[in-house]
Amino acid sequence: MSCDLNEDEINLRHAEKMRNRKRVQDAEVAEKIIEKGLLIVNTGAGKGKSTAAFGQVLRMLGHGHRVGIVQFIKGAWHTGEKAALDRFPDLVEWHTMGEGFTWETQDRVRDMAAAARAWDKAKALMLTPELKLIVLDELNIALRYDYLDLAEVVSVLRSRRNDLHVVVTGRNAKPELIEAADLVTEMKLVKHHFAAGVKTQQGIEF
């Protein structure tokens, strides 16, 4: 039992445990030799899907890579992330193509037309060789409401160039998209301040 050991013995055991863990970890990392563009899906009911995608954008910018962003549902409202990324006009191509949240527009035909324009822009960006990463923000919502043809979207994403990373965000990702993805993260809602009457706040929600 560790309670019967002195501090030096505990430290020695810990060091040996970490050496063993490092050997296993190094061997596992050495086996991974494939390099490819990833299809990443951030979904789930929890907060943070788009925030995580913009964190990925920031990481790419840190390495000097160019990125493209297409927002499918969100309208042209001021957000902190856009204000920050506007400071990198040579590296970031940002397109807000939505008409606003679906419960605000209340117009399916209008929303479908906006989604189609956004998807056309996304396809054009995917053909831009200078872009290393493309974020398709809230594409899952457009697919959920059948604003776009799911089979076509999945096909285009699967056939993108081999070195292009794409991040798709939004709740209720379709099973077909999840199956096509390389990395899927589901944000789980555990607790949200909105339920306690806390309003949307600058720097947190936008």
Provide a descriptive summary of the structure in words.
The structure is a single chain. The chain has helices at 7-31, 49-62, 80-85, 102-105, 108-126, 139-144, 150-158, 175-180; strands at 39-43, 66-71, 92-96, 131-137, 165-169, 183-186. It is an alpha/beta fold. It folds into two domains: 1-33; 35-196, Rossmann fold, CATH 3.40.50. It has a six-stranded parallel sheet, sandwiched between helices. Strand 2 (66-71), helix 3 (80-85) and strand 3 (92-96) form a beta-alpha-beta unit. The mean pLDDT is 92.
Task: Describe the structure concisely for a colleague.
The chain is of the alpha/beta class. It folds into two domains: 1-33; 35-196, Rossmann fold (3-Layer(aba) Sandwich), CATH 3.40.50.300.
- Note the run of SSEs as H and E: HEHEHEHHEHHEHE
CATH architecture of the largest domain, please? 3-Layer(aba) Sandwich
The general outline is globular
Largest sheet: 6 strands, parallel
Keywords:
single chain; 206 residues; alpha/beta; Rossmann fold; 2 domains; six-stranded parallel β-sheet; 8 helices
